[in-house]
Amino acid sequence: MTQIILSLSAAGRFSLLGFYAARARRIIPALVVMVVLVCLAGWFYLPPVDYKGLGKHAVGSVAFVSNIIYWLESGYFDVESHQKWLLHTWSLSVEWQYYLVFPLLVSALQRFNSGKFLKPGIGLGFVISLLLSVVQSQWYPSAAFYLLPARGWEFFAGALVYLYAQHLNKNLNRYNGGIILIGCAALVYTADLAYPGWYALLPVLGTSMVIAAGNPGILLRNSVIQFFGRISYSFYLWHWPVLIAARYSEIELTLLTLCLLLGIAILLAYGSWRLVETPLRKGAPTVRPPTYLLKYAVVSLAVAIPCGWLWLNGGVAQRAAPELREKIAANEQQLNAWDYPGKCQFVDQLCMLGEPAPRKVLFWGDSHIEQWYPVLMDLLRQGKNHGYQIIIAGSGGCVPIRHLNRIQPGYDCAGFNEKVFQRALQPDIHAVVLGSIWSTYFRDDIFTGSGQPTVCNASAGCARFDSAHAAVQFAQQQLRHDIQQWVAQQKAVYVLLPVPVYRYSVPLYMARHWFLHKPMTLSQTLLQHRQYAAPALELLTAATQNTTAVMLDPAALLCASGTCINAHDGVSLYKDSNHLVPRATLGLAPLFSRVFESSS
User: Fold this and answer.
1) What is the pLDDT of residue 77?
2) Which residues, at least 6 apart from 143, have a Cβ–Cβ distance to it below 8 Å?
3) Nearest alpha carbon to residue 19 among 98, 99, 94, 92
4) Gap between the terminal Cα atoms of the chain
5) Euclidean distance between CA atoms 369 and 205, whole angstroms
6) Domain-by-domain residue ranges, the chain?
7) Is the pLDDT confidence value at 446 over 50?
8) Which CATH topology does 339-499+529-554+585-599 take?
9) What would the pLDDT profile of 496-507 be if each residue is shown by its tens digit?
């Protein structure tokens, strides 16, 4: 892009509108076709809540602001990435936003003082954007990932390659080194990294080296790679919807199915390249750039308006069979069934419930302690708190064990937990109740089951544990030490065991199956629940052994028949795959009545 701008400017033929028109011609047609086809398929297969989200994301995609939309949506209870059909278009939006700004910057630097500040100016932009990316990746990871300011340096790197390396000779060592760096990033990097930040330097540097080397290697010069290079844009557009369709259809991603999905994505990409991209590349536009831009603006608007209608009309619930609409709507409503007050969700604030009292019960944990807010408020209203004031100390994503932090950026679990622990030592705290999802901190997640812990040793600079077993052993010793301190002060200690966790969001699963008239097969037995939660159950059993701490098990009630209950009358008891809705927690009130009765 830098080469195009500078070479045309040197020849006196650069036009800003012409540049934008060329970019629109390259990007918009194939994008619009993909979005339209996905939305048409969604009419038949997606329940209202999913279709509403697709309409919103489709508008963002064709307006090139989808990265901003996904950034605004990001949060603890955000829908998983494998449920967003157009998530991949965030990078295309960033790219288009860069296209709007970069030519103006280059033109300004080129004209100022005869272009002497062109290279330093772009270099300075590279450094500033990179430093912003590093800082934001630690404290505001979603902004760093999705937004242009922290991503601009990756584009600036390409400009610097052209400005500084255009006269370099072909170099096989530089080429091979770049390939190795790219390969290392692809094989070693995981989702736990504070990406982009410093980590993005590896693939960006590798790519820059390959470009600067002048492509002397055979790897990028053979016909197979060149074929994939030609269809790469269309493949980028189609690979994600194909993968999401498989996830949505509950297809197990084995090596065989992944190969089949790859083949389907390649066929769709080839069709898009052959039928959409190639015809538009033949010949120059016969109209002036302003007219050409207006033409594509109209095309984009023609897609955005009906997609916006889908969004604003709630996903067109009328598509569902009349007798099923109530069930579908009831399940979709559970996605927002969360009563924990927003004012209590700041990690520096303890949520005080009930009238001030000299005796208090402290509930400490992650969002799985926050989910019990409705039942605790109900006990207060009925006067079953036995004169205790209730304190809830919850921080989403933070297991209530000191000196542990999340590997993922944006968390300060160690600081929060230390503060709550010190509060628990105060004499007015008569009982401490620990609650968490527990299990997922000591294994990757239920989708991969890799057994890798998602927590680190905060007392050692967030050093990673060698294994899940090492993390469990550390957590067990720390938790046992803290429980013993509370018991020594004559405080009652209770540990809430995890609720059953499912592979899919239960309300979404049920809404989709009602919509498609498919049988409900999402279930698990008490034995399966305990097998999945085994690392956490072993940790908690060992930590409380030979102490007066009492373990409270919600699964004993939820799975009383041997099969765990996840719905009642066709409506989910969960708001996602692991958090209970308020009406479900109210049915587990006996667990908490015991806390107040025993502490009195």
Assistant:
1) 59
2) 71, 136, 150
3) 99
4) 73
5) 44
6) 2-319, 339-499+529-554+585-599
7) no
8) Rossmann fold (3.40.50)
9) 999 999 988 999
Nearest-angstrom CA–CA distance, 492 and 233: 61
166-194 pLDDT tens trace: 677 777 888 889 999 999 999 988 777 78
The residue type at 181: L
Average pLDDT over residues 108-118: 84
Residue 487, both tokens: 């018991």
Contact, 335 vs 576, CB < 8 A? Answer: yes
Q: How confident is the model at residue 331 (pLDDT cuts 50, 70, 90)?
A: very high
Q: In the prediction, which pLDDT does 192 show?
A: 73
pLDDT at 90 over 60: yes
| Three-class SS state of 286 | coil
Q: How far apart are CA 395 and CA 375, in angstroms?
A: 19
DSSP annotation string for 2-71: HHHHHHHHHTT---HHHHHHHHHHHHHHHHHHHHHHHHHHHHHH--HHHHHHHHHHHHHHHTT-HHHHHH
**223-230 and 232-248 are packed helices; what angle lies between their axes, rounded to 10 degrees?**
70
Q: Residue 30: is its pLDDT beyond 90?
A: yes
How high is the pLDDT of residue 285? 59
Q: What is the DSSP string of 433-473?
A: EEE---GGGGSS-TTT-----SEEEGGGTSEEPSSHHHHHH
- Distance separating alpha carbons of residues 115 and 9, to the nearest angstrom: 12
Coil, helix or strand at residue 394: strand
User: What are the Cα distances from residue 433, in Å, to 403, 437, 499, 535, 547?
Assistant: 19, 14, 15, 20, 14
